[in-house]
């Protein structure tokens, strides 16, 4: 059905080509890439299943990083076109990010569920991360993206997604200049202050919102707020990402947001 429709459209366009003549002698300086973000994911399955899933009719990504010893990057969707990777999503007030982002999937299992129901998170291969960073540097440069344009699925959909997970090495991306990272000495100082008196829910919500998250602003601790804080912790303090407020999370938020100014 879809290919029949495509054929009709192509025939119609071919028919128009004779009648519609467009002059391209002039080019505007006032333009930029449609791409504003790069959203990172893991596939939760092996390479064969990932390729089958991401080339099917339902979900897709622009890039897929394989898990071979020398990983291969697959481009499944042209960068000029939309891939279907983020679903309902929001970052910095912008919604439905498939329209404005490049999706990068990494072949990776995520976690294994143990007998007691807990999650055993799986590490990423250094070869995959090295290749990913090279790809991200190229994308950021070509689309002229500002720092912090590289985000996780868990950032843009914290109520329903946890990929790329707590073992994803965000700090490596910071060292490559792709994202900001809170200054360690400043965090220690702020942490001591917040340990005296932990800020309230309203403060955490405002700070999380300033980072870019969609978060409730009603001043109460609820599951939605905890899920957002857990997503932030997974990224900047992965050792504990239970979504419970503490002095270190407060310090990380404060220092990160201060660096925005
Ligand atoms: Zn995802």
TrEMBL record:
InterPro entries in the record: Amidase/PGRP_sf, Amidase_domain, NAMLAA_amidase_2, PGBD-like_sf, PGBDSf
Cytoplasm keyword on record: no
Superkingdom of origin organism: Bacteria
An example Gene Ontology biological process: peptidoglycan turnover
EC number: 3.5.1.28
GO cellular component terms listed in the entry, alphabetical order: outer membrane
Protein keywords: Cell wall biogenesis/degradation, Hydrolase, Signal
Entry GO MF terms: N-acetylmuramoyl-L-alanine amidase activity
Keyword Zinc in record: no
Catalyzed reactions: Hydrolyzes the link between N-acetylmuramoyl residues and L-amino acid residues in certain cell-wall glycopeptides
Family note: Belongs to the N-acetylmuramoyl-L-alanine amidase 2 family.
A Pfam match: Amidase_2
Signal peptide range in chain numbering: 1-17
Name the record gives this protein: N-acetylmuramoyl-L-alanine amidase
